[in-house]
Fold Transporter.
Amino acid sequence: LEKSSRSEKREICCVHLIKQRLLFRADLEVAGDSEGESRQDLLSEKPDARPTWGSKAQYILAQVGFSVGLGNVWRFPYLCHQNGGGSFLLLYLLLLFIIGIPFFFLELAAGQIIRQGSIGVWKHISPCLIGIGFASCVVCSFVALYYNVIMAWSLFYLGSSFQFPLPWSDCPGAKNETAIESECMDSSPTIYFWNRKALHITDSIEESGGLDPALTGCLFAAWMLVCLAMIKGIKSSGKVEICDLFVCLTELVSGFFLSDVKFEGLDFFIIFLFFTEDFNVTLQVTD
């Protein structure tokens, strides 16, 4: 009896041990499966991808549209005229190929490789250079302020151009001999319209003047256009740049070939720009 009871106890103990081992193995398998799933989840989780251009052509056209601005159309001819004409153009092209284009492609390459903003790019290169990123953001902010003012002036002139006759074609008060007419006659109708109608310049610097409703509305419209162009990031700004480039090219072609505008003095400007013999600016730079 004792032997039979002992054998039964051994069998019972063996059964309990087997059950415990099976349960332990099952727990290990469940834990392993959960760990594997968590690892797969971690591997499958990807960081938030930054927005990209729709195509290479869209990127190139956007860069071209971004490069064509007030600096090319407005400031460059003035600076070229004031600094020697052809000699300035020669030095400009030389420095453009030596310094301008290499640094331009270096900036594009840094942005494409690091894939961060202006501050993040310089911080990635070296934490000591993060101030350059902040400085570039400050400069862009100030440039945007006065560029939008110029856009507001352009919108004001665009709205005024729908009037007939044009408000800057003749001096106001031509029938009545007034002080306004004499002021306009001393300068020109365009200068008078710019100073008195567009800018509302006061007679003295001590008088600040008030807000002009038309210019204020044009400035608000300019900022709204910028907001709509940038609201979706690259997806919206790239399309806007392409449309801007197309509109600029269309205006240039129509202005040269389809309009009856007489470009008085254009031949003199081209001769001065490309065939000048004044190299004083070049000599001053080399000295």
